[in-house]
Amino acid sequence: FIRHKQSFMSFLVSIRSMASKTQVGFIGLGNMGNPMAKNLMKHGYPVIASDVFPESCKELQELGAQILDSPADVADKADRIITMLPSSPNVIDVYTGPNGILKKVKKGSLLIDSSTIDPAVSKEMAVAAEKLGAVFMDAPVSGGVGAATSGKLTFMVGGLEEEFNAAKELLSCMGANVVYCGQVGTGQAAKICNNMLLAIGMIGTAETMNLGIRLGLDPKLLAKILNMSSGRCWSSDTYNPVPGVMEGVPSANNYQGGFGTTLMAKDLGLAQNTATNTKTPVPLGSLAHQIYRMMCARGYASKDFSSVFQFLREEEGQ
């Protein structure tokens, strides 16, 4: 009897794990979405995908993903959908547009948005989804393309706490850290706050390194001293903006790859909007926003955000 009971229990467990590997929808196969969807497939999830640019779908299709024409078509086939899109207007269109997810969403569907957008838009989408019996959660990421490829992203999740484990099951296939932040919009809030500090820290590191070099210090030596002193930060010890100080970072590769200046300017704009709405003083965040906006206008838009070092060097010469 015990043996029979054990085999029956293991049968139930295997049925449950098979059931949990039902197909997952994925919308937005750009620099981040593509490797994220691939990691879902590596973990055995059949993926049904869609992207506004058909050429973005080719690689995933060759790996066995089913490609559909619109977000609505994906929602018709899958009751768990992840979206990874560039900005708030894209998210609004993909969810509520004429061919949007909410046109054909099934009751009980779990909708996870990993885009970085205004928290107010996340809340709007959650309300719209709830009216149709679906659950919307915001789950923006930190870690960039490298972490997306290696499956080591950090997800900051906002939404109903009782749905967190269902979201975590999928997000853990793509990330090393999945953190519950609170109600819908708090994931976005955490991401925006992190990136504002990241920008301020990067500009400070670039200014400091530039001043030290002008004072005759060797950049590698200066970085070493900073990193054993109280000025140490992620931008100085992991992502140094000065060419030749570190290997394997964008500054070692003419600022190619990494996290683009345009995206940083966008995130700082979100921080600025939320600060204005909450009457929160962010003088350094505001200044960082203006610096990155100037960089976008001066030819740095597609370079990594650490190129602020190069931008400051050029400003000296004018």
From TrEMBL:
Annotated EC: 1.1.1.31
EC supergroup of this enzyme: oxidoreductase
Pathway: Amino-acid degradation; L-valine degradation
Catalytic activity: 3-hydroxy-2-methylpropanoate + NAD(+) = 2-methyl-3-oxopropanoate + NADH + H(+)
Cell compartments where the protein resides: Mitochondrion
Pfam family, one: NAD_binding_11
One annotated GO molecular function: 3-hydroxyisobutyrate dehydrogenase activity
Ranges for domain 6-phosphogluconate dehydrogenase NADP-binding: 23-182
Superkingdom field: Eukaryota
Domain 3-hydroxyisobutyrate dehydrogenase-like NAD-binding: 185-311
Keyword Oxidoreductase part of the UniProt annotation: yes
Catalytic-site annotation from UniProt: 191
Keyword Oxidoreductase carried by entry: yes
UniProt keywords, alphabetically: Branched-chain amino acid catabolism, Mitochondrion, NAD, Oxidoreductase, Transit peptide
GO biological process assignments: L-valine catabolic process
Gene Ontology CC annotations of this record: mitochondrion
InterPro entries: 3-OH-isobutyrate_DH-rel_CS (IPR002204), 6-PGluconate_DH-like_C_sf (IPR008927), 6PGD_dom2 (IPR013328), 6PGDH_NADP-bd (IPR006115), HIBADH (IPR011548), HIBADH-like_NADP-bd (IPR029154), HIBADH-related (IPR015815), NAD(P)-bd_dom_sf (IPR036291)
Gene3D superfamilies: N-(1-d-carboxylethyl)-l-norvaline Dehydrogenase, domain 2, NAD(P)-binding Rossmann-like Domain
Family indicated by similarity: Belongs to the HIBADH-related family. 3-hydroxyisobutyrate dehydrogenase subfamily.
Name of protein: 3-hydroxyisobutyrate dehydrogenase
